What we know:
There is one protein chain. This protein has 6 helices and 5 strands, in the order αβαβαβαββαα. The protein is α+β, with helices and mostly antiparallel strands. A hairpin with a 2-residue loop joins strand 4 and strand 5 (about 115). Helix 1 (about 5-20) packs across helix 3. The longest helix has about 40 residues, at about 130-170. The protein is elongated, with a radius of gyration of 26 Å. The protein starts with a helix and ends with a helix.
Amino acid sequence: MRKEDKGAIISQLADTVKQYGHFYLVDTTAMDAASTSELRRKCFKAGIKLMVVKNSLLHKALMSLDVDFSPLFDSLKGTTSVMFTETANVPAKLLKEYKDGVPSLKAAYAEEGFYVGADQLEALATIKSKNEVIADIIALLQSPAKNVVSALQSGGNTIHGVLKTLGERAE
C-alpha cells in the first residue's frame, strides 16, 4: 500500500471516530463469511457502522486525535473490526445476542470512558443513552405534577359529593 493511500485511510478513520463519538473494538477472527454477513446486516439495521481495519492504521488515526486513546492500544492485536455508533449501548446489546462469544469485545470507547476486555460487555449494555436519561428525568419531573393533579381531581369529586349531599338533605 502506498504512503498516500495510508495517509488517506488514517484521516478517514480519524474523521469517522470524531463523527460517531463511540466505538467498539471487536474480534471477528472465528466468524465465517455467512456469520460476518449476518453481523453486518444486524449492524446496519441498528445504525452501527462496521469496519474491518488494519491495527496499525487505526493506531495512527487514534494518535492523531486530541483524546488520549492509549488504554485501547493493547487491544489492537489480531483481526480487529470497529463498530462505530452514536448511541453508546447499542453495539453492546447486539454483541450480547451472540451467546458463544463470537464476535467478542476487545475494548470500547463509550461516553468518554474506556472499557477494556470482554468482561466489560455487561457494563456497556447497561449504559443509558442520552435520550433514555432525558426520558427518565422527564418522567421523574412529571410524577409530582401528576400526583397533585390527581389529588385535586379526586378532592373535587369528594367536595362536590359532600356539597350535593348537604344540599339534598332536608332541613
